[in-house]
Design goal:
Blueprint: E1 2-3, E2 11-12, E3 15-16, E4 21-24, E5 31-32, E6 41-42, E7 44-47, H1 54-66, H2 68-71, E8 74-79, H3 84-93, E9 98-101, H4 107-110, E10 115-123, E11 126-130, E12 144-147, H5 152-163, E13 172-175, H6 178-187, E14 192-196, H7 199-206, E15 211-215, E16 226-231, H8 233-238, H9 240-259, H10 261-272, H11 276-284, E17 286-288, H12 291-299, H13 302-316, H14 331-336
Helix pairs in contact: 1-9, 1-10, 6-7, 9-10, 10-11
Amino acid sequence: MRNHRKLAGIVAAGAAVALALTGCASNSSGTDSGAEGGDEMETIQVNFGYIPDFNGTSLLAIAEDQGYWEKYGLEVETPSFTNGPLQIQALGTGDLDFGYIGPGAFWLPASGEAKIVAMNTLGQSDRVVGQPGNDTIEDLAGKTVAVPEGTSGDMILTLALQEAGMTKDDVELVPMEPSAIVSALASGQVEGAGFWYPALATVKEQVPDLVEIAQNSDFEDTVAFPTAFVAGNDVVENEPEKVERVLKALRDAITFRYENLDEAIELTAAYNALDVDDVAADASNNKVLSLEELDTLTEDGTVDSWLTGMVDYFVGSGKLEGDVDTSFYTGDLFLQAGE
């Protein structure tokens, strides 16, 4: 049963952030006699951040429902966040052990602030949108465009502007939190946004003629949009057993999700108190990968090529400087957890 707790100490942008925490208490006895092979193991406490959408929640919802945390002797609390950069901050302060990020936040582990420990899905839910009458990115020149900074919405807007020979200086950029963007688009306070589904579905209820100017698939030849799970540098360096157990649980959940997608959608909806149809629509905007695919893509260097392309993008957009390798993805640990 899920415990509801408060996790103190999360600080973002100089202000205390109050988080609604949803803890997954997998084992109250302190040991797990039902772990692999029946061996008794000491329970390990884990704080695992997430974003309440399909990509950010589905594996955690599955791990709780299917008993994977308990299987590997883990007692997991899962605080909810609005974006990846906040989770990277919390990893750095030790308030989180693990978290979930979308592609727009990959520059943070690339800059050394965390490690990517597992790939998740390929995101296809990001859009550059405009109010009716704004049919191209050029139509947004000089107009107010909202974006949640450091996210995949920021990333797709930058790519769309670059493709048109424009920069952010050519629009009136307005940094906003995701919830504020929904309200601003619905009320017409901004002319456009770099944003994503499922939140855009809510906007379209108020603005049915909202124009989709650009989407992930427009750039798939040069940049992938993977989502991933991250861990604090100290956790990876100093707590190998915690990392291995969490990765084993995630690997089990990845297999379940691929083989039981409809049930995974239902579990995600229940976990986040969302409508099942809305979560199904969200899931349809993403490519769910099997465990075998993720292992192969890690082994054959495909993931490294994704990361290289993303690093090149972040260098070009000014987020990163100089030569950056892909060692911020600990693919070897992900593969070892399957042995």
